[in-house]
Amino acid sequence: MLIVLFMFHDSAYRQKASGMRPATRLHDLRDQIARIERGAAARPGAVVRFGIPAIDEALPRSGLALGALHEVAGAGPDTEHGAAATLFTAGILSRMAGPVLWVVDHPDLFAPGLAGAGLHPDRVIFAEAGKDVLATMEEGLRHPGLAAVIGEISGRLSLVASRRLQLAAEQSGCPAFALRRSRQFDDPVLTEPTAAATRWRVASLPSLPVLAHAPAVPGLARARWRLTLTRCRGGEPGSWMVEACDAAGALCLIPDALIPDALISDALAGTRLRA
Amino acid sequence: MRRVVSVWFPTLPADRLRRLGGGAPIGTPLITAAHDARRQIVAAVDATAAALGLRAGMALAQARALVPGLAICPAEPDADAAALRHWAGWCLRYAPLAAADPPDGIWIDVTGSTHLLGGENRLLRDLINRLTAQGMEARAAIADTPGAAHAAARFGTASRIPSDTTHRGATRAALVPLPIDALRLPAATCDGLRRLGFERIGQLLATDRAPLVRRFGARVATRLDQALGLVFEPIVPVLPPERAQARLTFMEPLLTEAAFATVIARLAASVCAALETTGQGARRLDLLFERVDGSVQAIRIGTARPSRDARHLTRMLQERLERVDPGLGVEAMRLIAVQTDALIHTQTETRLADADPPEADIAELVDRLSNRLGADRIYRAALVESDVPERAVRRVPALRPATRMTWPPDWPRPVRLLDPPQPIDAMALLPDQPPVAFTWRRLRHRIRHADGPERIAGEWWKRDGEMRSVRDYFRVEDEDGRRFWLFRRGDGSDPTTGDLRWFLHGFF
Question: Residues B133, B113: contact at Cβ < 8 Å?
Answer without folding.
Answer: no
